[in-house]
Amino acid sequence: MFKMTRRTTLRRMTSAMLAASLGLGFTAAAHANDTIKIGILSLTSHSPSIIAAGKGYFGEQGLDVEFVSFQAAQPMAVAIASNDIDFGMTAISGGLISLAEKGAIKIIGGALQETPEIDGQKILAAKAAYDAGLTSPDKLVGHSFGVTTQGSSFHYMAHKIADKAGFDRSEIRIVPMQKVPAVIAALKSGQIDAWSIVPNIAGALTKGPEVVEIGKVSDYIDNYQVTTVFTSTKNVTDHKDLVKRFLAGLAKGIDDYNAAYVDKTLGADDVAAISEMVHKYVYADQPMDKAAPRIAAGAMRINRNAKLNLASVEDQLKWFQSEKLVPGGVTMDDLVDTEFVETF
Amino acid sequence: MELILEKINHSYGDMPVLTDISLSVGSGEIVCVVGPSGCGKSTLLRIIGGLERPTSGEVLMSGEPPADSLNPLTYVFQDFALLPWRTVEGNVRLVLEDHRIGRERVGAVVDDVLARTKLTEFAAAYPRQLSGGMKQRVAIARALSVNPAVMLMDEPLSALDSQTRDLLMDDLIELWTQVRFSACYITHNLAEAVRLGHRIVVMSRRPGRIRDIVEIDIPLSERPGFPTETAAIQRRLWEMMRDEARAADRELSDVA
Amino acid sequence: MSLDRSLPSAAPATEKPGAAPTRPVPFRGSGFTHRPHRHVAPLVFAALLILWEIGSRTGFISNISLPAPTEAAEAMADLFRSGMIWKHLSASLFRLTVGWSLGTLLGIAVGLAIGLFSVARAGLSPLVSALFPIPKIALLPLFIVWFGIGEGSKVATILFGSFFPTVIATYGGVDNVDRSLIRMGQSFGLSWSSIVRKIIIPGALPAILSGFRISASIAIILLVAAEMIGAEYGIGAYILMAGALYAIDQLIAGVALLSLLGLAVAWLIGRAEKMLLGWRI
Ligand SMILES: Nc1ncnc2c1ncn2[C@@H]1O[C@H](COP(=O)(O)OP(=O)(O)OP(=O)(O)O)[C@@H](O)[C@H]1O
Ligand SMILES: [Mg+2]
């Protein structure tokens, strides 16, 4: 799944091949660039770093990049904790907080965020449950709600819905299914009543007859900081400069991403060029003409300059602690290093 | 009841094993069958007991078996064939359980045969706790319990050491004196044949045919008193068998 | 001795045999046998735990790669304090007992059929060989559709996991029943059902029971997989949650619970063997 080697020569070679395969001018060998490994999931929301690498924004910072693909966020966090990779981007999960508590990783910036003006995550109901009266998230009392694992962002969303709608969290029955495809299968077959998910998946689901949209997550959670950028504590303390250069490169990638998919201010050719880069990692199993619209569909905003909504992060941490999913002693300082990006 | 074998022929595939065996076992008579290894003795016994069908020929029963015989043709096996998970008593009971003869009668029969085979005090022992001789006693008790018309015994004593064998032969004669069962008794051991057989059938090497039948008219219980006569018969049997045995031994076995 | 005459070290040739010096035959038969050492296993275990604890305390074992044993013990104690242990245990034990019992009962039935009837053997045994190696975890998505995300799919996973090894153990056991015992039964005119009940099944029982050891271990292994889907409680669900939260102390506590469960099951089967196979020793 991911390579464990830390031998820099090997890193150089692979990143050289990578850059070459992306068809880019590769001049790093001359100034002995630093090599960083970035963990990604094959989701559109991970494309800013792909774009930054493809357009040479990391190269401008003197960074060679190697991407390491993961199937799930959890092993990516563990790989950062063990210094096998350097940077990653995922939702705040119990696993992430536990590793932060052990002093292994830190959140250094914000990524995906719910904003009122952009289509965000949707709350879905199975058709049978909808027909039986589950027409709004406020009526989730007594219903089952699919999550991947306990302490996942889905679990958080379910409880925030309960809080806002004004019923007890325990009135929603949380059903862990481990993987997103399993949740989808259970929702489609009506074995669970409800779920919440990013708009592109939600859109695909509600096209079919089995699933109905009943609400938006942004109505229940204010300015939800869905995913964050994080790195190892070692990088934060010993390689501040590296972190800064990474974030600088990433920021330019984020701008291109937002322009291409969220604000749609780029020309068709530019979007196509960007999608070409992203396609190397996202929907790579599909031909370009099929993948391109899927990559663009339902993209959510990623914070400019990786700004971080501290209030939302704190709310999430409090929720984890109130549910006893993470130790009570974890502080915001354990979890976040605020020196690198603007926070609010 | 008398048992009559008429022109039994048997072959396994192309290999003839038995040719033209005609023989009878009279009521209360012990017929010993001797012959070189692989001549078809066990096969013959399986055919007699209805465990195998002969290629041609018939095994006939003439007259009725005793009214209380539960299993007219009953085997005693060389390897005892005791169920290791049943006690001595349980092993005897096994063959009575399928017959609807009532609990008390089963109990009575078991007690009786265990007493006759001097096993009463071992009723609760498991086969693994018993010596070979004791195991064969259990097998004999089991056979006696169904009150057979004919006992079919395939080298019943050959797994035992010679002292135990002698003791068991005495026991068998004592049992036979009490209840005159008939038996077809297969053995390699000529001393056994001479000690136990009213008639001794000598078979040739494979394909087995009857070479000779030797009759001994000294009553079983008196034979220890005639050492010279029995020794002479045994020598005669050995002379008959020696060449067959030598030839059989040098034969290449094409099976197993 | 006379052959040794040419060797300088040999005894003087003039000595009479009776007068030769005597010495004991050296003992050469030591080693290569096992003696029971009752205290060794607990000592090794304790020593490992202590080394592990020291390693964790000194930081030699990093706190993200393994929790200290005391931390795992603390997580275990938490389970007892909060009473959650009983919820997890009862949920898992229910799934294990129902799934394993049904799986082994069906397995014995099919195994006997294959062992006794040549038609069943011809029809079923290739099927069993084909289906046995399929990892049941791979079928989990199908099980969810077939049996739902409730207890059905969990019990079914364990059921299928214990079914196949039992089938194979059972018909292997039937095949290995001493033919001479069956012939003996036939020669005494025992009915077919008596032969099966009194000779074949007891004869196959040792093999069936050792099949139980395997199927029970497989059932425990599959518990985690079975509880991946929609399980709120259960030791497997607890371990999965600990993994998702990267709570490695709870993870180790959960794994220790599984080991204990395995030991308990092995002990129970050992007892059953003692009871049912007492005749063997
Ligand atoms: N089921 C069988 N199928 C094929 N051949 C067989 C079978 N049973 C026995 N034979 C062969 O038939 C021949 C006679 O066998 P049998 O066991 O009757 O001999 P035996 O006289 O009892 O020998 P032994 O003195 O060694 O007990 C042997 O060559 C044996 O290999
Ligand atoms: Mg034989």
From TrEMBL, chain A:
Signal sequence annotation: 1-32
A single GO BP: alkanesulfonate transmembrane transport
Domain SsuA/THI5-like residue range list: 44-256
Intracellular or extracellular location(s): Periplasm
InterPro entries: SsuA/THI5, TAT_signal
Keyword annotations from UniProtKB, A to Z: Signal
Gene Ontology CC annotations of this record: periplasmic space
Pfam families, per database record: NMT1
Domain of life (superkingdom): Bacteria
Keyword Cell division set for record: no
Family per record: Belongs to the bacterial solute-binding protein SsuA/TauA family.
Name this polypeptide is given: NitT/TauT family transport system substrate-binding protein
Lineage, top ranks: Bacteria, Pseudomonadati, Pseudomonadota, Alphaproteobacteria, Hyphomicrobiales
From TrEMBL, chain B:
All copies of domain ABC transporter, residue ranges: 3-230
Single GO MF descriptor: ATP hydrolysis activity
Keywords linked to the UniProt accession: ATP-binding, Nucleotide-binding, Transport
InterPro entries assigned to the protein according to its UniProt record, in alphabetical order: AAA+_ATPase, ABC_transporter-like_ATP-bd, ABC_transporter-like_CS, ABC_transporter_ATP-bind, P-loop_NTPase
CDD domains: ABC_NrtD_SsuB_transporters
Presence of keyword Secreted: no
PANTHER family cross-referenced by the UniProt entry: ABC TRANSPORTER ATP-BINDING PROTEIN, TAURINE IMPORT ATP-BINDING PROTEIN-RELATED
Family the UniProt entry places it in: Belongs to the ABC transporter superfamily.
Name of the protein in its database record: NitT/TauT family transport system ATP-binding protein
Species of the source: Hoeflea marina
Classification of source organism: Bacteria, Pseudomonadati, Pseudomonadota, Alphaproteobacteria, Hyphomicrobiales
TrEMBL record, chain C:
Region (Disordered): 1-28
Membrane topology term: Multi-pass membrane protein
Gene3D superfamilies: MetI-like
GO cellular component: plasma membrane
This protein's UniProt keywords: Cell membrane, Membrane, Transmembrane, Transmembrane helix, Transport
Location(s) in or outside the cell: Cell membrane
One protein family per Pfam: BPD_transp_1
Predominant place of localization: membrane
Regions that span the bilayer: 98-120, 127-149, 155-174, 218-239, 251-270
Family that this chain belongs to: Belongs to the binding-protein-dependent transport system permease family.
Reported function: Probably part of an ABC transporter complex. Probably responsible for the translocation of the substrate across the membrane.
Official protein name in the record: NitT/TauT family transport system permease protein
Organism for this UniProt entry: Hoeflea marina
